[in-house]
Amidohydrolase-related domain-containing protein (Lactobacillus intestinalis DSM 6629), 301 residues
Amino acid sequence: MKIDAFAHILTPNYYQKMLDIDPDIPDKYPFLKIKALTDIDYRLANWPDPHLKQVISFANLNVEDFVIPDQSADICRQANEEMEEIVKKHLDKFEAGVGMLPMNNIPAARAILQEISDSKYLVGAQIFTRHLGKSIAALEYRPVLAAAAKLNVPLWLHPVFDKRKPDNNLIFSWEYELSQAMLQLVQSDIFEEYPNLKILVHHAGAMVSFFSGRINQILDEQHADDFKNFYVDTAILGNPPALQLTLDYFGINHVLYATDAPFGVAPFGADEIVTAAVEDLDISDLYDNKIFKTNYEHFVE
């Protein structure tokens, strides 16, 4: 059994709600046109591996960018309820869901974290490298991170573009944004204040393992070591040497199998090449199983 810890979906009712708010969304965000992202029946009928279950989070169409705070909270709650129903209906395919937070409404975001903590089908909440143009490490978002730590609700960290930059691209920009957000979180002393905070960083922790020498030489020892508190996934579209570097840096207990499905490889995702990359690592079968399954189970317990 494999658990894909970072896969994506746009639930039908939520997507329709967003289209009602802004009908031009598909033109603004072309990646949303991937059929397996929005058509659940199509996705289920073409499941890549009978031994695979996915943990599904919303594709980064953030309600806070479109509506006022009260409406944002209402839509998030409705979307999370819809996510729960989808997981409950398809437990043979979906391991769990990851909830959405209205980050333009911090009190509501904290309350929704409590709802996620009480949920049977949601195991965490998704945050982004930037919200409303501000770093996730900004002080105004600290109460959300604090609540997640207190409630033991894991957070899934996904990148978004910094809209101040004129040359954003999917190849390099998101990896920079992830790395920068990790640095900003570390330098905010988040792990000193909340040492039990659990954050899963998409795309294998981006640039961090490759630039670990610079991290260790430029930062003080405490902050350099704090990078090891992050959990990371395997969603880098194969590349066993890079994945080995990720494993060597973050450690066997902090690397979770994930593919970014259905993105990466058309039409359903990169399960085959990511699985092959994990199996190509210089580790035992026991450690393979930690990456494929048990690290996720420990992450959400």
Observations:
- Residues 127 and 157 are 5 Å apart (CA to CA).
- The radius of gyration is 18 Å.
